[in-house]
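Records of this kind hold a single protein each, on a pair of labelled lines. With that in mind, the following record should read easily:
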Amino acid sequence: MMTRKSLSNVLAILGLLIALFASFGESLTYGQTIIVKIIGLRSSDGVVHVLVYDNQKAFNTSSMTGMVTYATKVAKKSQMSVTFRGVKPGTYALVVHHDENGNNSFDLAGELPKEGWAYSNNVGKTQKPGFSRASFSLQDSSKQQIITMNYAN
């Protein structure tokens, strides 16, 4: 015989499972893809981080918790690609960082970057752009961004 507490626990677990499956199913309905082709990598050292943002505040403050998703891949000299699948339609901006020493930090020498950086739409060669300049619309099934890396030295 099931007690009231046991029934309550079973219902709570059932509710969590329904919420989990509902949110999982929702994410599977999006078929859009962002293909990021990164060119101009000066070496195969370290890794490349690609961060995807969908809101101005998170992008402008470089929020690590406000991004939609991200990928980290082993760097490949000259060019490489990163693909994000299952992205919902919307407006996005990308940040690319060539973390050559693999320390998960954007290293500076004074005020100059020691490692590579880039933004979607190839803006921000001399200063960080705002979200509106770096953003692009993703409505079709896929969108390719060809991004050229910048290096200060």
Observations:
- The beta strands are 32-41, 47-53, 69-74, 78-87, 90-99, 108-109, 112-113, 116-119, 135-138, 142-148.
- Confidence is low (pLDDT under 50) at residues 20-28.
